[in-house]
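[Discussion] Sanity-checking designs against the backbone

I'm trying to build intuition for which residues belong where. Below is a structure token string of 294 positions. I'd appreciate it if someone posts a full sequence so I can compare it with mine line by line.
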């Protein structure tokens, strides 16, 4: 006969938030595609409105879903087993994000190391270069494509360097907020976490300014400016989306701190958001090195 007490494992009811999130991502994809395709023309199009609707729906979904989870947590429905499930889920989620960006970095590597040199006749592809584009010279960044499309490379100095400093600083402030929470210093948690959120917002603002500069007549760095333009916006754009989600997560955690949530022994929601934020910081450092500097 056993005297071991078993914890109850809370199983939430079916949620409508996943389908709301799927619809929001669909609107973002359609709206962004339509909006970007019309940037170089005088036609306004409907892409901008669809994109904004998708972003608004994502924010609505995140706050609604977070509210459900927070309510369940504060009502005492979660046990230590549930906490372990959350940790495993967040760990696998970040691992899937690592694979997500690994695929994009792999595409960048393949284009730089293999595809572009092949077009110039590297390896056993001498006749490929002679027949297709005999005047083409393999360089990176590829500012002039084989078909004659010309663009300008984005330098690592200026806004990219400033954004790197901002994100690295935000990683430090997030860690300081984490330490302050473990030590029970709630005022310092509010200060450091609030500063982290502010740095994330400033980073996104400067990212928008960088994109506006790229699409200006001075640079002509468009999404369709060859393999360099497409990989540049693909990598930095998806990273910007992750910074946006991370900033929202940290902002929700900050609101919870102001409401008196979390204790030095129970703060996994804060920890999960911190994990995610450090992840996007590491990805940006890799972007800064492989996309901007090299």
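Best answer:
Here's mine. Compare freely.
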């Amino acid at each position: 006969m056993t005297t071991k007490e078993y914890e109850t494992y809370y199983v939430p009811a079916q949620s409508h938030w996943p389908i709301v999130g799927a619809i929001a991502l669909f609107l973002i994809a359609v709206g962004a595609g339509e909006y970007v395709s019309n940037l170089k023309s005088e036609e306004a199009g409907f892409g901008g409105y669809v994109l904004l609707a998708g972003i608004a729906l994502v924010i609505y979904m995140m706050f609604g879903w977070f509210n459900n989870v927070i309510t369940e947590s504060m009502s005492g429905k979660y046990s230590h087993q549930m906490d372990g499930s959350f940790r495993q889920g967040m760990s696998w989620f970040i691992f899937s994000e690592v694979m997500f960006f690994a695929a994009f970095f792999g595409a960048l590597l393949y284009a730089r190391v293999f595809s572009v040199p092949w077009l110039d006749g590297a390896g056993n592809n001498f006749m490929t270069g002679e027949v297709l584009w005999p005047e083409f010279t393999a360089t990176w960044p590829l500012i002039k494509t084989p078909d004659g499309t010309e663009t300008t490379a984005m330098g690592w100095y200026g806004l990219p360097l400033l954004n790197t400093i901002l994100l690295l600083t935000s990683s430090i402030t997030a860690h300081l907020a984490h330490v302050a929470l473990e030590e029970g210093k709630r005022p310092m948690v509010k200060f450091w976490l609030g500063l982290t959120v502010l740095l994330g917002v400033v980073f996104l603002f400067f990212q928008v300014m960088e994109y506006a500069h790229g699409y200006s007549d001075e640079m002509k760095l468009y999404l369709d400016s060859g393999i360099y333009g497409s990989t540049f916006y693909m990598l930095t754009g998806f990273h910007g989306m992750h910074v946006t989600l991370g900033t929202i997560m940290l902002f929700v955690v900050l609101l919870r701190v102001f409401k008196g949530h979390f204790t030095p022994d129970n703060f996994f929601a804060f920890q999960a958001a911190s994990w995610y934020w450090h992840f996007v910081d590491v990805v940006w450092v890799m972007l800064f090195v492989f996309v901007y500097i090299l």
